[in-house]
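thought: fold this chain, then report.
action: predict
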Amino acid sequence: MEKLIFYQFYLNTTKFFLSTLIMIGIIVWTIQAVNFFDIVIIDGHGLKVYFLYALLNFPKIINRLLPFIFFISLFYVLLSYEKRNELNIFWINGVDKIKFLNKIIKLSIVITMIQIMLGTYFSPVSQFKARGILKNSDIGLFSSLVNPGKFINIAKNMTIFIEMKNEDQSYKNIFIEDNRNSSKMIYAKKGVLLLDETNKKFQLFNGRIIDNNNSKINIFNFDKIDLDLSNIKSKTITSPKIQELNTFLLFKCLFNTKFESVFFRCNKEIFSEIKEELFKRILKPFYIPLLALIAGCLILFSKQKKNYNSLKKLLFIFAFLIIIFSEGSVKYVGSINNFYFFSFLSSIPLIIFIIVYVTFYKRSFNV
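observation:
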């Protein structure tokens, strides 16, 4: 019977936790996806690139939401159990409150391991792949970004100005500054964009090119030229950020300042960011058992108590302050150079956990 009721408790908690996490995750992801639309509107990437980039950022969102959603889920399930008198089933079957709390802590340890795997592997890998998609993509919506009367500088080392667009979809009076291989100024009376699977070029008619190559200026006229657009890359930042890098690389950089790879060069200037990121990935998840313990304290109090509502509010506020402190400590840890102080800061969740657990243990015999 005991196994059955605990199985049901785990099932209810897990179902509520996963459904809430996915639902809130999708809401947050949708809001962020709207912000990501700048890579289409401003940077000119195609819609396929946009959707892949946005989708690959979903694990990061889940990773950030997981601790808070787990606490809310546990808190809600325990409150609903108390409201429906279902906690009495545990006490009637000989389950003491310490044993119940230990089951909650075991569940929180599983969630902690999942959080560490998300933070150290899945989230960085997905973000790194998302950055790679931007790096390897061309400007898929180039034609939609060519607006007459505006300077267009979405492409690296290239600026385009077009005076007007004709009714036949051609362009009139085109000025182009092209610094990709050498410094060129191009003027054309007319131009046509040819963008399909085989052609990506700007066909220019009746113009002049001023070519500045090694301080030697050449000027020549043309009747028709094709400006290749197939290798144009967006100005989007394509080098990976610290949070997108492999955990192993971050550790390697921390202990070897001369370390560098194809896409990452280690130096002391980024040490604070690396320490923050490693703290966030490996140590911050250990706040989850503490949050689970605080939620578990609900079983100490019965709804018949006059101050029951006040006590559950105090527990929620206490957990909320712990979450704020855990977020704040991530920002602060990068500036800590003292090993002992860093160790103390890292052990704070364990210290508070022991204090709360001992308090719970003593109170459980007096309830």
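thought: worth noting. The first strand starts at residue 151 and ends at 152.
final: tokens above.
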